[in-house]
Structures are given as structure tokens and as C-alpha cells.
Amino acid sequence: MFTERTGIIVWFSDLKAAGKQLEKYGNVHFISKKLHYAAMYIYADRLEETMKQLQRLPFVKKVERSYRNEIKTEYNSNIPDKTRFYTL
């Protein structure tokens, strides 16, 4: 039902051009005016193609993909839960 999306970071030199142009390629989540980067989400099946297109833009310095989807977020602990010892 939902298509898989992945995050990318786009480093740019021109804030005004970035604000207008980047919306064509995906969902712009955040634009940093001070550090000149944008965090955006794009469809995972078009990741390589979109990154190549973004790199060709004249105001883009560098495009990095986010590895957030590959980081393990389910944790297990071998240490027993001690919360029942601290109840009143």
C-alpha cells in the first residue's frame, strides 16, 4: 500500500534556487539556511536515478543518502528488567 521511501541530504550553494528546484524530486523535509543543506525523502526504487539528476543541478555541491533504514531499531536486552524491584 505504501511505497518505500528513503532519505537523502543535498548540500547546495544557492538557497533560493534550492528551495524552488528540490520540490520536483521529492518531499523536502527540512532546509538549513545556515549550513546550506536540505533533508528530503524520495522513492527508494528511483533512488540512484534521482541522485544523479540532483547532482547535475548547478547549485548542488554533494548528495548523500541516509542510512537510517539500515540501522537496527529493535533492541533486545539480556539484562533482566529491574523495574519490579523499585515499586513502592
Number of helices: 2
Number of strand elements: 4
- Class of secondary structure makeup: alpha+beta
Largest sheet: 4 strands, antiparallel
Q: What's the end-to-end separation, in Å?
A: 47 Å
Strand order of the largest sheet: 2-3-1-4
Walk me through the structure:
This protein has 2 helices and 4 strands, in the order E-H-E-E-H-E. It is α+β, with helices and mostly antiparallel strands. The protein has a 4-stranded antiparallel β-sheet. The longest helix has 9 residues. The model has no long low-confidence stretch (mean pLDDT 88).
Task: Explain the layout of strands and helices.
Layout: E1 5-12, H1 15-21, E2 27-32, E3 37-43, H2 47-55, E4 60-65
Antiparallel strand pairs: 1-3, 1-4, 2-3
Summarize the structure.
By secondary structure, the chain is of the alpha+beta class. The chain is 18% helix and 31% strand. The protein has helices spanning 15-21, 47-55; strands at 5-12, 27-32, 37-43, 60-65.
